[in-house]
Amino acid sequence: MKGNGKYSEKILSRSIDPATHAMLARVDELGISTAWDRFDAMQPQCGFGELGLCCRNCHMGPCRISPFEEEGPKEGVCGATADIIVARNLLRMIAAGAAAHSDHGRDIAHTLLLTAQGKASGYQIKDEEKLKAVAKEYGVKIKDRTKEEIALDVAKAAYGEFGKQEGPIQFTRRAPEKRLALWQQLGIEPRGIDREIVEIMHRTHMGVDNDAVNLILQGLRASLADGWGGSMIATELSDVLFGTPTPKKSEANLGVLKKDMVNIIVHGHEPVLSEMIVAATQDPEMIELAKKYGAKGIQVSGICCTGNEVLMRHGIPPAGNFLQQELAIATGAVEAMVVDVQCIFPALGTVAGCFHTKLISTSPKAKFPGATHIEFHEEHGYEIAKEIVRTAVENYRFRKPGMVHIPDEKSECMVGFSVEAIVAALGGSLNPLLDAIKSGAVRGIAGVVGCNNPKIQHDYGHINILKELIKQNVLVVTTGCNAMAAAKAGLLLPEAADLAGDGLKGVCKALGIPPVLHMGSCVDISRILTACAAIANALGVDISDLPVAGAAPEWMSEKAVSIGAYVVSSGIFTVLGTVPQVLGSPLVTQVLTQTAESVVGAMFAVEPDPFKAAALIVQHIDKKRSALGLPVPEAVLAG
Ligand code: NFS
Ligand code: SF4
What we know:
Layout: H1 9-14, H2 18-30, H3 35-41, H4 47-51, E1 54-55, E2 63-64, H5 82-116, H6 128-138, H7 147-163, H8 177-186, H9 193-203, H10 212-242, E3 248-252, E4 262-267, H11 271-281, H12 284-292, E5 298-303, H13 304-314, E6 318-320, H14 325-329, E7 336-339, H15 348-353, E8 358-361, E9 372-373, H16 381-395, E10 411-415, H17 419-425, H18 431-439, E11 444-448, H19 460-471, E12 474-479, H20 480-488, H21 502-511, E13 516-520, H22 525-539, E14 548-552, H23 558-569, E15 573-576, H24 586-600, E16 604-606, H25 610-627, H26 634-638
Parallel strand pairs: 4-5, 4-7, 5-6, 7-8, 8-9, 11-12, 11-14, 12-13, 14-15, 15-16
Antiparallel strand pairs: 1-2, 3-10
Helix pairs in contact: 5-7, 5-9, 5-10, 5-23, 6-7, 6-10, 7-10, 9-10, 10-22, 10-23, 11-13, 11-16, 19-25
């Protein structure tokens, strides 16, 4: 097979990341299959599914609608059309995504509650300032009270948001008044987080809501309950418990794994577990034990959003993003991969079985084939984390040196740009950023986020859209697996400003910040919402008036569907890199990619080519700039 002399064409076509190339060659050598191989084996993927045209919502089905002009059924057994089926399927994806983010938020609220009651082991309230700020929003009394007393009321108030019947969800009040009024007028202001998700399940039950537009509106409402509800609660209360992120340096990619140390990888999403694992690995008793077994120490690294959580708060290096999870184990150098919830391949147990690696599941909600289950509960958080770490350390002696194959590649990065950190970097207020936007030095802001997906060459979509945007003076904020791609490619460094256009370069150099700002995990997209609301409020406009846009170049998860929905409902134009399963309904497609603009002031575009996607974003930003009466770069006007 052709290639570059070192790697086959097949390997090169799967990723642009050199560490991933090295590991793909290694797994081929070992005969281990990965998501890429299973993706190939899945071809051709079901055409009905791709178009969103199959329905299993009742037992008269399954039904599928023929997308072709003449032949095949045009209605399900109950009479549901393509529009109804596609809309219902889309809504159920939103429900699942919103549920995942929100349940994460609920778990953090639970941890805060236990911590405030003194029932959690190892946790403390680390950011009192943030606690007070959030308490104020909830109307919780602060004066003459201990932080535990305040936290108890805040936790209860946040907990209450999930089961609320009538709303409002407090954090929606951060949105500009115009936006709030629009949601109210459209009937999509969320009432309670769980309520909106349950209502999707009800409405998509056989024979309930059979109007595609009415269905989509409920999808938007549930997604808003995620973005301005569940996700925002997850972010804010995580900051209260574990500290609001501040800029710090780290390294990223599989090369962060250490040959002579016990390697523990935390993978999944909720910082409740990973924070305790990090703490337990610093326990002298554990370090001693590691040395006893001949290791130099204990190295923790992260994958997926749990990786982002500990990266931005502790500088724990990420070993990689979503599609690298199997490859990390295949290095043969991982004593334990500790997982909680979301984005964890059920295939991991099989890969771990080829090595000495222990896959340790921890959540009562998430068990995996081939995993050792050590159930995590905050009441004994620290002790359980120590048991997990001990299990990993004791596994070091079973490592087979001949099987260890760690790629060299890693890159430095600067991470941890919470809204608070950005404001601090700006010298205490958003004004310098607003001025830079007004002058055109910063043309606009793009939030580039989301997963990997074997449908797109790994990291190709992420890196190219990022480079293209900064070149055109668009400041980028990033979360999730895009953030890790950016870290691996060196784009999260202040020096990366050299790749930016002159305007953005100048701003970054003056402030000492990277042109791509790491804002955290996927629930932290709520930080981007908070920032956009603050900017809109400062300018006295709606979010939909701002020169901002969103992109998810390689998205795959249902959470990403919910994110896309709330970002657009919040008034932010969003470009998707992989095609959503809605094209079977011309109506739903039209609503999402056209009509939405006149309803919520923003819409989706679908563009797999990252260069074209960046061009769409720049075009959109310039349109918004000109509507605000801000100067528009001439090159683009001419082009
Ligand atoms: Ni986000 Fe995080 Fe990555 Fe995608 Fe999964 S880790 S919550 S869903 S794959 S960005
Ligand atoms: Fe078929 Fe209608 Fe049942 Fe869906 S709800 S499976 S379209 S009969």
